[in-house]
UniProtKB/TrEMBL annotation, chain A:
The keyword Ribonucleoprotein does not apply. Residues 228-317 form the Beta-ketoacyl-[acyl-carrier-protein] synthase III C-terminal domain. It catalyses: malonyl-[ACP] + acetyl-CoA + H(+) = 3-oxobutanoyl-[ACP] + CO2 + CoA. It comes from Streptosporangium fragile. InterPro entries: ACP_syn_III_C, ACP_syn_III_N, FabH, Thiolase-like. This is Beta-ketoacyl-[acyl-carrier-protein] synthase III. It is an enzyme of class 2 (transferase). The active site is at C119, H244, N274. Transmembrane segments: none annotated.
From TrEMBL, chain B:
Residues 6-79 form the Carrier domain. It holds the Pfam family PP-binding. Carrier of the growing fatty acid chain in fatty acid biosynthesis. The keyword rRNA-binding does not apply. Its main location: cytoplasm. Keywords: Cytoplasm, Fatty acid biosynthesis, Fatty acid metabolism, Lipid biosynthesis, Lipid metabolism, Phosphopantetheine, Phosphoprotein. This is Acyl carrier protein. Pathway: Lipid metabolism; fatty acid biosynthesis. The modification O-(pantetheine 4'-phosphoryl)serine is found at S41. Belongs to the acyl carrier protein (ACP) family. 4'-phosphopantetheine is transferred from CoA to a specific serine of apo-ACP by acpS. 4'-phosphopantetheine is transferred from CoA to a specific serine of apo-ACP by AcpS. This modification is essential for activity because fatty acids are bound in thioester linkage to the sulfhydryl of the prosthetic group.
Length: 318, 79
C-alpha cells in the first residue's frame, strides 16, 4: 500500500467574518428581563451583541464568513478540497453544515464534515486542517466556525440570554514551506459534561456559570503556557492572544497569568457577545481588519467550552 | 497546627484585596460579601480558589453559596 505525501507545513492564508446586522444592547435585554447594563458589563463584559433574524441560519452566516475568507485568500473555490465547519447550534442534526456551505460557495465535491466541540470547535477544526495538509489528505482547507446560539436560548433566562450571540468566522488554510500553525494542545473534562448542556431537543442551553468560571480560571492558563512551549514560542513574544470570547473576566484572568506582555488581547466579546465556535476567528478577523495586529506576528488561539473541552495552538497571522 | 481566626482573617483580607482592591482593613468577620463588601459570585469563586491555595482547604461551589459572611469562611476553613 502507498501512503500520501503532504506539505512540510501549513499556514492560514486569510480570515473572514460575518455578523448579523441586528444589534441587541444590554438595555434592550433589561427591558424584557430582570437584568441591567451594569450587571452584564461587570459580570460578563458585554455591551452589545448581534442576533440573527429567523430567516438567517447558521449556514447563511457560515457562507458569508467563508466567502470573505476565500476572497481574501486569493484562492478560488476550485482550490479547496476540504471544508470543516465547527458548530454546536445547528437547527437539525442531519445533514451536516459543511456540505451545504461548500455547495453554496461553489466548492465542488470537497471532503466536508462538522466538528462539535462547542466553543473550542474552531481550534479543533484548525488542528485537523493543519494535520490533513501535512499528511497529504487535503491541499487547501476552508475552516469555518458558525453559531446561531439565539435559537437555543431561553429568552427569559437571564443567566444565558445576556451572554450568547450569533456570528461566524472563517479561515483558509493552505500548504507552506515553513510552519504557520503550531502543535495543538487539546483535552477534555467529561466529568463536567453537565456544566454547559442542552439536555434534549426540547431544552434550551443551560450553563452552570460558577463551575465554568472556576474551571476556566484555574485549568486553562497552564494549557496556554503548554501551547507556547510546544510551539517553542515565548509568551512574551506573542503579538496577540485570542482566547474564546466567553467572559471578559476569564479572558483577563488567563491573560494575566500567561505573561504575554506585548500581546494584544482580544476583547471582541464587548461588542460581539459569546459566539461559541465562531468567537476566535471572528475576533481575530476583526482585529486584522482594524489593523490592531500585523501580518507575520504570532497569535495564541485558545478555545474552551462545553464538554468540557479545550484546544489551542500558536499561529502566524496572515 | 491549626491557624487562629486572626491568621485566617489576615489571609482572607489579603486575598480579597488582591482580587477586588478592597482594603484588607475593611474585611472584618461580621461583613457580608454581597451586602457589605459588594463582592459578586464570580469574585467569590476567585476568592475560593485563592483560599484553597493559601489554606489548603477546598471550598466547592455548592458550599460556597452558603458562605455569606467573612466569619462563615473562617469557620469553614477552621473546620
Amino acid at each position: 500500500m502507498k501512503i500520501s505525501q503532504g506539505a512540510p507545513g501549513a499556514k492560514i492564508l486569510a480570515f473572514g467574518h460575518y455578523q448579523p446586522s441586528k444589534v441587541v444592547t444590554n438595555d434592550d435585554l433589561s427591558a424584557t428581563m430582570e437584568t441591567s447594563d451594569e450587571w452584564i458589563q461587570s459580570r460578563v463584559g458585554i455591551k452589545e451583541r448581534r442576533i440573527a433574524p429567523d430567516n438567517e441560519s447558521e449556514i447563511d452566516l457560515a457562507v458569508q464568513a467563508g466567502g470573505k475568507a476565500l476572497a481574501a485568500s486569493g484562492l478560488s473555490a476550485s482550490d479547496i478540497d476540504l471544508v470543516i465547519v465547527a458548530t454546536c447550534t445547528l437547527e437539525a442534526q442531519i445533514p451536516n453544515a459543511a456540505g451545504r456551505v461548500a455547495t453554496r460557495l461553489g466548492i465542488d465535491a470537497p471532503g466536508a464534515f462538522d466538528v462539535n466541540t462547542a466553543c473550542s470547535g474552531f481550534c479543533y477544526a484548525l488542528a485537523v486542517a493543519n494535520d490533513a495538509i501535512r499528511a497529504g489528505s487535503a491541499t487547501n482547507v476552508l475552516v469555518v466556525g458558525t453559531e446561531k446560539l439565539s435559537q437555543w436560548i431561553d429568552w427569559t433566562d437571564r443567566s444565558t440570554a445576556v451572554i450568547f450571540a450569533d456570528g461566524a468566522g472563517a479561515a483558509v488554510v493552505g500548504p507552506s514551506e515553513t510552519p504557520g500553525i503550531g502543535p495543538v494542545v487539546w483535552g477534555s473534562a467529561g466529568d463536567k459534561f453537565d456544566a454547559i448542556i442542552i439536555k434534549d431537543r426540547d431544552s434550551f442551553l443551560h450553563q452552570e456559570g460558577q463551575t465554568v468560571f472556576r474551571w476556566a480560571t484555574t485549568a486553562l492558563h497552564p494549557v496556554a503556557k503548554e501551547i507556547c512551549e510546544r510551539a517553542g514560542v515565548d509568551p512574551a513574544d506573542l503579538a496577540a492572544f485570542v482566547p474564546h470570547q466567553a467572559n471578559l473576566r476569564i479572558i483577563e484572568s488567563i491573560a494575566r497569568r500567561l505573561g504575554a506582555d506585548k500581546a494584544v488581547v482580544a476583547k471582541d466579546i464587548v461588542l460581539a457577545g459569546n459566539t461559541s465556535a465562531a468567537s476566535i476567528p471572528l475576533a481575530l478577523s476583526r482585529m486584522i481588519e482594524r489593523g490592531e495586529v500585523q501580518s507575520g506576528g504570532l497569535a495564541l488561539l485558545l478555545g474552551f467550552g462545553a464538554g468540557l473541552t479545550y484546544a489551542g495552538q500558536v499561529i502566524e497571522i496572515p | 497546627m491549626a491557624l487562629s481566626e486572626q491568621e485566617i482573617l489576615a489571609g482572607i483580607g489579603k486575598i480579597i484585596n488582591e482580587i477586588t482592591g478592597i482594603p484588607a482593613s475593611e474585611v472584618t468577620p461580621e461583613k457580608s460579601f454581597v451586602d457589605d463588601l459588594d463582592i459578586d459570585s464570580l469574585s467569590m469563586v476567585e476568592i475560593a480558589v485563592a483560599a484553597q491555595d493559601e489554606f489548603g482547604v477546598e471550598i466547592p461551589d455548592d458550599q460556597l453559596k452558603h458562605l455569606k459572611t467573612v466569619k462563615d469562611v473562617i469557620n469553614f476553613i477552621q473546620n
